[in-house]
Amino acid sequence: MFISNFLSSRLVQILVRNHTIEKSVSEIYKYSFNYIFEIIFFFLALQAASIFLSVPAFAPLFFAVLMPFRSVCGGFHASTRLRCTLLSYGCFIITYILYLLTRSWPDLFWLISFYLVIGTLYVFPAVTHKNRNFSEEQKKRQHKLRHIFCVIWSLLFCLVYLLNLKFYFHLMTICVSKSADRCTVHSEERRIFH
User: Fold this and answer.
1) What is the number of alpha carbons within 13 Å of residue 45 lying toward its C-beta?
2) Is 0.90 surpassed by the pTM of this model?
3) What is the DSSP string of 154-177?
């Protein structure tokens, strides 16, 4: 968080100094770069943790499920950047613990659970929050994207299940379940776009 903030500030200063961007829009660029750097560092930290935990495929799968769904499901938002960061890492840790505790459960449980959760995500609309209200146009766009993601993940899960890749369909179910919690990025700084 602090590193991404420092890097985005420095990058924006360079762009303003070189007259690549105007100072009046520098805050928007700073926010955007900061968000990109945070995503990169988040993924790298998760990947390092996954390697340390001897499950290197866990971080890419968690990330691939979490990032698209958290952007289109709305719902729970942290009120500060630090809380958002802690919440994101907490979701990863909880997901890993759930995987350890439930990986020996029967395959039919995973099949039913996955399609119940993905069905829930498919049917229910994006949830608004006081920190992030959606316009009607945004709700329609998110509704469409959520349906696309649900169909893609359903097909992938079906393929992985038919190939009997237990590690992957267990993790996919748990990751999609965590996405259903709708832990998504904070939006306290979105005011700069309005």
Assistant:
1) 15
2) no
3) HHHHHHHHHTT-HHHHHHHHHHHH
**Which three-class secondary structure state does DSSP give residue 95?**
helix
Q: What residues have CB less than 8 Å from 62, skipping those under 6 apart?
A: 46, 92, 95, 171, 175, 178
pLDDT one-digit tens code per residue, 56-82? 988 998 888 877 777 776 555 567 777
For residue 76, report the phi and psi dihedrals to the nearest 5 degrees. Answer: -70, 130
| Closest to 92 (Cα-Cα) out of 110, 65, 72, 68 | 65
Q: Are 23 and 16 in contact (CB under 8 A)?
A: yes
H-assigned helices in the chain: 2-17, 26-52, 58-72, 81-102, 107-123, 136-162, 166-180
Residues contacting residue 92 through CB under 8 Å, at least 6 positions apart: 46, 49, 59, 62
Compute CA 161 distance to the chain's CA centroid, rounded to the nearest angstrom.
Answer: 23
Residue 94 CB burial class (10 angstroms; 0-12, 13-18, ≥19): middle
- For the chain, give the number of residues: 194
DSSP 125: P
